[in-house]
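Let's practice the habit of predicting before peeking. Look at the sequence and jot down your guess about where helices and strands might fall. Then scroll down.
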Amino acid sequence: MLLRPARYAAAWVAALAVALLVGGCGRHWPWHHSPPPPPTPVHELDITGAAADTYPQYWKRNTLLVDLSGASGSGSITLKPVEGSTWPVRIAFRVRPGAIGVLDVRGAERTLLPINDTGASPVDLELTPGMYTPTTPQMTVSWGPAAPAS
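Done guessing? Here is the structure:
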């Protein structure tokens, strides 16, 4: 029995499609992008306090991000510029909603940063420009549960 040319072409197309599907699983497709690499930890500020080693620092564009996403309950840390350097122009803190209720930051000024307890992903809270000056010796960051509404 002879195959008609249309059936013969359809059989080749089907065989080629199966070969591409099976063989293409391990290939890198040009439209597939790998996830971005994790940020590189830096040491711009000296951090002292309870479990200070568990709060890494990263650059997020031109903002120094201090990752407090591992913080829960109540605690406090002190931040100082590394010997021989100055404060970064911008500083932010990464926190997990629901883990802590409020950040109390004291530098040249004092500010309370309430943290919404809804949401699953960490939130970045950037400090306002007047929170610290080049001559501010240190900043204290405390956290704890949210103050009850009065």
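How did you do? The CA atoms of residues 104 and 112 lie 5 Å apart.
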